[in-house]
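Question (not urgent): is this output format expected?
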Amino acid sequence: MRRIIQSKKLQHVRYDVRGPILVEAQRLEAEGHKILKLNIGNTAPFGFEAPTAIVADMIHHLPDSQGYVDSRGIYSARTAVAQYYQARGLTETSVDDVFIGNGVSELITMVLQAFLDDGNEILVPAPDYPLWTGAVALSGGTPVHYRCDETNGWNPDLADIESKITENTHALVIINPNNPTGAVYSEATVRALVDIARRHDLVIMADEIYEKILFDDAVHHHAATFAGDDVLCLTFSGLSKAYRVCGYRSGWVMISGPKHLAEDFLEGLTLLSNMRMCSNVPAQHAIQTALGGYQSINELIVPGGRFYEQAKLASRLLNEIPGVSCVEPKGALYCFPRLDPDVYSIKDDEAFVIDLLRAKKLLVTHGTGFNWFEPDHFRLVTLPDVAVLTEAIERIADYLESLRA
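Got this back:
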């Protein structure tokens, strides 16, 4: 019998957040070890529960959620999303500009499949959420990574973006607030990114899933606000993080700008939407309640709130470790610390996190897994309470001390 092998389309596709490090963690768990998993921004295991009103609304609508619905999403959910952006200055947004999906992840894949031809280049930040790189490659495109500058608060290097634009470049991906760095871009930065897209006739793909998780004086600016009617902008967001319902898989993409020039692309996106019938219907009923109701996220992102205090604690403790530096996150749920190469001679950062896992039963993700260029970073999820987070970083400090020794 012939061997059954994976498709060649997967040759350049990676998703290391759930890659070999997770396999090793599962092996250790099977041996009876208890692993503290700080590799995925999954809120539920750390005691964050969905707002009661959202759960109640889903339960209430379950009897009406047994059949297929409009492939773009139920009307009430799309209306709620459209009104959400209208209230933020995008007054031309309509129900027909919104597609509901099984989380942002599904919609990213659908959009790129509808958008890309073989060889098309997409500008993706480095570091990035690796789904973007993987989905571009799987869709036949070429991800081209532009550098975000750690010395400038992890803001995009605008000159580096400009230098990497070619005649094959078709879109610019913006992840703001950023995963994995926690950067939140200023108005000037977002305007500059949109201006690059405008001058080079690029589509903007704005991943804004963390838009409500902001600390101190950080302000989120929608890229679509500055794109106007001459830059096509696809804005991705959803309920997973701000409403602590990762498992509901409830996200959306909103299309703004010169839609009359994108009719053929939107026809393709509708085709793909139809092919998957529709997204999870019960979770769609959560959207109207979430966007229109009490915003419980506000309690978590101010001093005394868990998201706030844990982010501050993590960055402070990491910076206290010799040879480690961490830009304090302005939003999202992560820290992306740097290991000084003069202190820690790490050639393979995946091997480093696997060794850390075996030694300290702590699972983090290596920086090159987020398409960073050098093996000198790792990502830490800041979701555990302060006691657990303190213990986790103490384990990291102990392990790094052994490396220095």
